[in-house]
Specification:
The protein is of the alpha+beta class and 183 residues long. Helices cover 31% and strands 16% of the residues.
Length: 183
């Protein structure tokens, strides 16, 4: 059962994000709070979108996609998530989708949840006319490589992801030398 995340799912998704960080060998890297995630998913405009996977037969998951009907108790059975945001390609002139993270609890893997999450993302792309669905995978994560290949995805070549972290952004934005407070 795949559906868009609701406000009541925030705690469960944040727990899954922490599980992903532990899996990716960075258990202390998550600084995001429930308030941060709520603002990102439900702000105007949203900074990101999230789908959640729930076990089959979960009747709470079949109610209308109304935040008022989703409670924290509803979110306890969330077994996976996929978080994404739109992108734009100057090559295609079209919008695409960037999958930020996809994670399924280890005890629920191989039950089809990851495939269902990707399938729903592909459907969203189709409905919206998105031309690309892209994501990054750690080099050492061969189980993920195998899974993504099994759904028809392929790694890109000749591209390396680059990043400025907050400190580097600040330094680039204000390149003036700072010498002990004297400028």
């Amino acid at each position: 059962m795949i559906r868009p995340a609701r406000r009541g799912d925030v705690a469960a998704v944040l727990t899954l994000v922490r599980g992903l960080a532990a899996y990716e060998r960075e258990p202390d890297a998550v600084a995001m709070t429930a308030d941060d995630l709520t603002a990102a998913l439900f702000g105007e405009p949203p900074a990101a979108y999230c789908l959640v996977a729930r076990p089959p037969g979960d009747t709470a998951a079949t109610t209308a996609d109304d935040a008022a009907t989703a409670t924290g108790a509803d979110a306890t059975d969330v077994v996976g998530f996929a978080m994404w945001h739109p992108t734009f390609s100057t090559w295609t002139g079209k919008t695409g989708m960037y999958l930020i993270d996809l994670f399924v609890r280890p005890e629920h893997r191989r039950a089809g949840h990851g495939r269902e999450l990707l399938t729903e993302l592909a459907r969203i792309c189709g409905r919206r006319g998105y031309q690309r669905l892209e994501w990054a995978v750690l080099d050492w994560n061969t189980p993920a490589h195998d899974f993504y290949r099994s759904v028809g995805a392929a790694p890109t070549s000749e591209w390396t992801t680059w990043r400025l972290d907050a400190r580097a952004i600040d330094a680039l934005a204000d390149p003036r030398p700072h010498h002990g407070g004297v400028t």
